[in-house]
Amino acid sequence: MKPDRWGRFLTQTTDVLFGIYQKGERLRLKDGTTGKWLLTAKETDVALQQANEQVQEEARNRINAEIQAQEEATRAITEAKARLDAEMRAQ
């Protein structure tokens, strides 16, 4: 394999570009097709943590919305029952 003009190597089997960055202290991988950087282990951990937090927040929001809907339905039933009781007493 020969490096490109920036000293990076592209593997044909995985289509991953390997390059050394930050004054030779860091190996970075890039998708050869999309040109997007592959996440480092640390970046992956952060992304997973953020995704988990987002999923938990969305679940809390859904649960709160369901509780609110149930409370509104209970109020509506209570009000309807009170109206019916009032109508029956009026007759």
The major β-sheet equals: 3 strands, antiparallel
Number of strands: 3
What is the CA-atom radius of gyration, in angstroms?
Answer: 30 Å
The number of domains is 2
Question: What percent of residues are in strands?
Answer: 15-25%
H and E order? EEEH
Counting DSSP H or I runs of 4 or more residues, the number of helices is 1
Please give the order of strands in the largest beta sheet. Answer: 1-2-3
Assembly context of the chains: single chain
Give the overall pLDDT as a whole number. Answer: 92
How would you describe the shape? rod-shaped
Helix fraction by DSSP (H/I, runs of at least 4):
40-55%
Q: Termini separation (Å)?
A: 95 Å
Report low-confidence residues grouped into runs of 5 or more. Answer: none
- Structural classification: alpha+beta
How would you describe this protein?
The protein has 91 residues and is of the alpha+beta class. It folds into 2 domains: 38 residues, no CATH class; 52 residues. It has 1 helix and 3 strands, in the order E-E-E-H. Strands 1-2-3 form a 3-stranded antiparallel sheet, with no helix packed on it. Strand 1 and strand 2 form a beta hairpin. The N and C termini lie far apart (95 Å).
Give a brief outline of the structure.
The protein is α+β, with helices and mostly antiparallel strands and 91 residues long.
